[in-house]
Structure formats: C-alpha cells, structure tokens
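My hope is that you will study the record closing this message with an eye to the fold:
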Amino acid sequence: MSGSPLRGARVLVTGGASGLGAAVVEAVSGEGGVPLVLDRAPVAAPLKGWQVDLSEREAAESAVARAAEEAGGLDAVVCAAGVDRCGELAEVPADEWEKVIRVNLLGTAAVVRAALPHLMRSHGRVVTVASTLGLRGAAGASAYCASKFGVIGFSRALAAELKGRVGVTTLIPGGMDTAFFDDRPEQYKPHDRSTLNRPSDVARSVVFALSQPQGCEVRELLVAGSLEDSWP
C-alpha cells in the first residue's frame, strides 16, 4: 500500500453510500486514499460524509465546499451519484423526469464546478459516470438517456477545456448488480442479473484512472459485463 499513487489522496465521491459509489469508496480506502462522501443517505464512521440532495445546486456547492475545507483540499472527484425514472415520456410526471436531469447531469456539473478551484491547485482528476445508455437510446428511459448523453458531452468538453491542468475521465459502465434496479416496474428490470457487472470490478477501473502518472490521462473507459445487452 505504501507505493500506491492514491495513498493520502482526498477523493470526493458522490453517491458514495451505496452501489458503485460505495464500491469506489472501498477501493479508494484500500489504496490508502481518503474518501469523502456526498450522498442523500448518511455514511457510517469512520467515513466522512455529508448528506445532500444533488438536484439542488446551491446545496451541492455548499457540500463540496465543506468537504474540501475539512480535508484541506481535494485531489479527485468521482461523480457516481445517479437516479432514474423509467416510463414513456407521456407517462412520467415532468418534475420526476426533470429530477433525473438535475441529479445526473446538472448535479455532476455543480459538483465539478465547485471542486475545480481545489483540483486546479492539486492538479487533480475528475471521473464522471455516464452509462452505455449514454451511447444508445432505450425505450422507457428518455430521462436517463438524456442525462447520460449529456454527461458524455459535458465530460468530453471539460477534458478539452482543462487539458494539462485537471485530468478528466468519462466512465461508461454497463449494468451493475446494485439496488439501482430494485424499485423499478418489472418490465424495466434486468431479465438476468447474473449478466450484470459487480460494482467492485467497475470501481477498480476508477482506481486505474485515478492512479495514472501526471501527464497521462485515461479519457474514457467503457466497462461492461461479457453478456451485457445494452452494448453494443
């Protein structure tokens, strides 16, 4: 562990209380890093966490500021928080549809924007989390697809904007075996959860991106199960 590039790194993880975010927190901790969690749910000690609704921009910015102040800065941000609302466009209430955009896309932008001054000082890194449904559309997923297509476009533009100053990686995962699917109607649940990736495996990809030497960037990572049906 003493030789890990992440040893002592202050890594802010959104959605770090569950799913991929929790797996990233565990992976960062295993490399000697210091995870800082933003989530709607609390995290157990000794983890440091701040409860926040990332759909509210000012609350998101304030939470980033508090985390950075307590940690004395930031070395990386991993935007793993995400929500979904399945259903045809005409059936999903507008406020629920827009909440997906506010959390997944605008929340990502708000967190990165607030973290940038700290990342510029540390020459840090950002990992945004898109989806294979940010590359192809799916019926009943217009809100999620719109948000994740947006994350990919945002991340590519951000990488061009920050090159040489802050590293930007877009993680494009396929389906993962998490609670993300649990409250969906049956028609929108995976047909076979055994084909889904384990979040711990995907989290290793995040550690890989964060561990690159200065000047080397992993721009995009598509990580999917071998039987993934959302890709290609």
Remarks:
- The chain has five helices and seven strands.
- The radius of gyration is 17 Å.
- The first strand starts at residue 10 and ends at 14.
- The beta strands are 10-14, 34-39, 48-51, 76-79, 125-129, 167-173, 220-223.
